Amino acid sequence: MNSKKSPARFSSDEVNRPLLRQRAFNLRWAEVDSDVIPLTAADPDFPVAPQIIEAVTSYVSDGLLGYGPTRGLVEFREGVSSMLEERGVPSHPDQVLATDGAASALWAACRAVLSPGDEAITFDPVDFLLPHCSEQAGAEVLRCPLEPGTGALPDGVLEQRIGPRTRAILICNPHNPTGRVLRREELQRIASLAVKHDLVIISDEVWSDIILGDVPMVSIGSLGDEVARRTITVSGFSKTYGLAGFRIGFVHCGSNTLAEQVLEASGAPRTTFGASVVSQVAAQAAMRECQQWRVGFLHHLRKMSQIGASRLDALDGFRCPEPEGTYLLFPDIRATGMSATELAGQLETKARVAVVPGEERWFGAGAMGHIRLSFATSEEILDEALTRIERWSETR
Ligand SMILES: Cc1ncc(COP(=O)(O)O)c(C=O)c1O
């Protein structure tokens, strides 16, 4: 009998720091000094669910690893389609395209609907990928400032930005970096403007499973047929299931016409781009077999969110609300008298904790005066990072 006890889920015993130092890139463990705790890019410190490892191992051990179907494996697309249907988004597997990540899904969606001379509207602040992909497609980006403090969509500001060249509105729900879950009423306002002005809605819902509070996740594509038809939903499996390294995501289009345009723009028909089959197998296992694991992860994240927000909020000059979704804290640090860049620099050099400064290049001008911290780690590591920040704050 094997007497080895498996480590408690989402505990520090599950976090393999030496391996993370070798493998976790993108501003994380492998890219910071060896005594720095990186609460930077949103990528969990935990290993993936065992069901994913089993599914991938079994598929690979069969030894056949040729090309997959252009749009993605049928089972993968069926899985995505039923997931969206459960959220009230009318969906058909043929309107789903497997992509190598949500970022790539956004890129394909933007290339499909935006051209030079077009305008795209998005929020300020928002994750850089939304404006970046719009600009890569040649469009000019107009930003809609969110309400400082709450991150809500103020009345009237979206309308003011819509003009004859506007082609698309890009939203991020739940919102990175504010952690806010868009209200049904806000989504309805966005949707009616899109219908009125014949715009495409590109909705980045990569965070849609990470709902921490009472505000329900509403997919904008669920707000009636007229809205669904013009909605492109993009998402992926990096945030919920820790599959960032597999680069796996999807695009769903509410009409066949949009689906064909996105497919063409994605490069998949000519095999220049596309999602790896093994990654789709991993995502299938995530959707089909890892719901219990996901509930456990959410339970852990809710606790980390409370701990992180309350301890940061107690610091001199910090104001840190709890996020409604995502595993990101986004404290307002203006009362410290420091810029985000300066404060993040001090945290890294003096407290030995790396965070993302709210710089324009990451999130837009609306993020200035804020820093962003990811709490998808164990309680012990989060506690260590917070203790270091508290000590720095007391002595600065
Ligand atoms: C809003 C948003 N969209 C897309 C991505 C990228 O996801 P993926 O790893 O699936 O490309 C991220 C990652 O942080 C994100 O926050």
Summarize, please.
This protein has 396 residues and is an alpha/beta fold.
Bound molecules: pyridoxal-5'-phosphate
Question: What's the number of structural domains?
Answer: 2
N/C terminus separation? 55 Å
Number of helices: 15
CATH class of the largest domain: Alpha Beta
Q: Would you identify the regions where 5 or more consecutive residues have pLDDT less than 50?
A: none
Mean model confidence by pLDDT: 97
CATH topology title of the largest domain = Aspartate Aminotransferase, domain 2
Helical percent range?
40-55%
Secondary-structure element series: HEHHEHEHEHEHEHEHEHHHEHEEHEH
Strand and helix layout:
Layout: H1 17-23, E1 37-38, H2 50-61, H3 74-86, E2 96-99, H4 102-113, E3 119-124, H5 129-136, E4 140-145, H6 157-161, E5 166-172, H7 184-196, E6 200-204, H8 225-229, E7 231-236, H9 238-241, E8 249-253, H10 256-266, H11 277-289, H12 291-313, E9 328-329, H13 340-351, E10 353-354, E11 356-357, H14 360-363, E12 371-374, H15 379-395
Parallel strand pairs: 1-10, 3-4, 3-5, 5-6, 6-7
Antiparallel strand pairs: 2-8, 7-8, 9-12, 11-12
Helix pairs in contact: 2-11, 3-11, 4-5, 4-10, 12-15
Pyridoxal-5'-phosphate binds near residues 102, 127 and 172.
Model description:
This protein is of the alpha/beta class and 396 residues long. It folds into two domains: 12-49 and 291-395, Aspartate Aminotransferase, domain 1, CATH 3.90.1150.10; 63-288, Aspartate Aminotransferase, domain 2. 40% of the residues lie in helices and 13% in strands. Helix 2 packs antiparallel against helix 11 (277-289), helix 4 packs across helix 5 (129-136) and helix 4 (102-113) packs across helix 10 (256-266). The mean pLDDT is 97. Bound molecules: pyridoxal-5'-phosphate. Residues 42, 101-103, 127, 129, 172, 176, 204, 206, 236, 238, 244, 249 line the site of pyridoxal-5'-phosphate.
